[in-house]
């Protein structure tokens, strides 16, 4: 996946976005708050990433994970854990002795499934570095069965090294034993056809994992086959619509938030139009 680095036209450069995506900002700067949602905060610079063919950042991933956990799949709060991208990165890069202090407060051992965003960033000095996102899913073995890790990478094996490192870091703290199964890019893994939608695939796959798990708990539904069917629906066309839906979701949630300014997000015209009106 591609992303913009500082100085090459990031959301910090207002002129760039206005020229490239038809963005109009009135009385709002790139650092101004758009949405304060549970434990996540979205600023103008974050939301702008949804208005064009851009690589998503930690803030957008964290926002949607929070939405899935707190709202859409609130019924799964005892069985599914969502790990923030920054926490995943930290766990993969700290000393082994420090991992427990990070993971234990999250209570991951008490849930059946844990979802970890994976970044190929290898520079600890650049927390928002890297160029590709993927999703690591941990499943606790049933009735003493083998624990499993599934790595969903929409670009094939680009993040396999990063995912393997994260698995090595979390295994002593999540698995019932050292024996576990690691599956890299399961057969049903959706594939992207461009260089910028990896973050959207992470969110869409996470949504599908939760949906399949919820259905399996509520009736006589096979979770694995249900997930395979849902993953098959995550096509490039689906992802294009999903990007718009995320922008609409931010608009819907922000409409009732007191930001100190009257802020309206107009997303109806096209994917490349994001308008903030004071």
Secondary structure elements and their pairing?
Blueprint (H helix, E strand, L loop, with lengths): L13 H8 L2 E2 L7 E5 L2 E4 H4 L10 H15 L7 E3 L2 H9 L2 H8 L9 E7 L13 E7 L7 E6 L7 H15 L5 E5 L13 H21 L4 H9 L4 H19 L9 E3 L8 E3 L1
Parallel strand pairs: 1-10, 4-5, 7-8
Antiparallel strand pairs: 2-3, 5-6, 6-7, 9-10
Euclidean distance between termini CA atoms: 34 Å
Rounded radius of gyration (Å): 19 Å
Main sheet makeup: 5 strands, mixed
**Assembly state here?**
single chain
Order of helices and strands: HEEEHHEHHEEEHEHHHEE
What best-fitting shape do the alpha-carbon axes yield? globular
How many E strands? 10
Task: Please state the structural category.
Answer: alpha/beta
Write out the strand line-up for the largest beta sheet, numbering strands in chain order. Answer: 4-5-6-7-8
Low-confidence segments: 4-26, 258-278
Beta-strand share of residues: 15-25%
**Percent in helix:** 25-40%
The total count of helices amounts to 9
**Overall pLDDT:** 84
Explain how this protein is built.
The chain has about 280 residues and is α/β, with parallel strands linked by helices. The chain is about 40% helix and about 15% strand. The protein is built from nine helices and ten strands. The chain has helices spanning about 15-20, 45, 60-70, 85-95, 95-105, 160-175, 200-220, 225-230, 235-255, and strands at about 25, 35, 40-45, 80, 115-120, 135-140, 145-150, 180-185, 265, 275. The strands form three sheets. The chain has a five-stranded mixed sheet, with helices on both faces. The protein has a three-stranded mixed sheet with strand order 1-10-9. α7 (about 200-220) runs antiparallel to α8 (about 225-230). Residues about 5-25 and about 260-278 have low confidence and may be disordered.
